[in-house]
Design brief:
303 residues; alpha/beta; 8 strands
Length: 303
Amino acid sequence: MSSVAFETQRAALADVVAIPVTPFAEDGSVAQDTHRALLRRLLDGGITTLTPNGNTGEFYALTPEERRLVTELTIDEAGERAVVLVGVGHDIPTAVASARHARELGAQMVMVHQPVHPYVSQAGWVDYHRAVAEAVPELGVVPYIRNAQLTGARLAELADTCPNVIGVKYAVPDAARFAAFARDAGLERFVWVAGLAEPYAPSYFSAGATGFTSGLVNVAPAVSLNMIEALRSGDYRAAMKVWEQIRRFEELRAANGSADNVTVVKEALASLGLCRREVRPPSKPLPESGRAEVAAIAAGWSI
């Protein structure tokens, strides 16, 4: 498939890339109707890129059957209204099977989660992603990079073999390292997505990113869209006004090694009556003492 065919996918990455939560029912199963309602709320709010099975969707806490279900619900609900970027990962056969399942359902792209194997070599990183990308040459492939040791040259090497590797979700919390990595890999060659969401979006956009991922968008789509509009127009003063607005919420999510990353988002949604607050171990719901602050933040966003 030619690079021209990936134009739609590339455009979808240069946007607010929403990572929907996976809501759970009282019995602990995936709450399908609630999930659909939350997806519709994102779509109605103007979001056009969705990532089922992302980390905010508790990817690693879902069973293989649940990951397939979440993919199916998202693609069905998105229809023609959004481009879907399905999170895949774990061992290579599992990642490949998930990518092929996404392709069969009509997804346009897959995001390959950072390998969680304790021993990741740079050459092995290339091999892992090549195995997934070669299995679905029709799909755009987006590596999710959290490894500060990985070099831009390795990404370029991967894309030389797999032209469907079209974008990168870069989530190393270092704007200078990102700027160097992007230029070593090829700034214009890939769509660079700031993978650490709104708090890092202004600094990463200044270095070449054109999209950012978001979990906050589940709660307040308009807030995330305000930030990307400001960044697209190069209005960093306006972008930082949004940054100030969301700062405390994101600090709560990032505290203690991001222990409450998903918890805070679900707590905000629960305060708005949109889903239950339950998360799965190793996450944990907020204690009573922290709930009021999150509810106040969510209420203050006028949603």
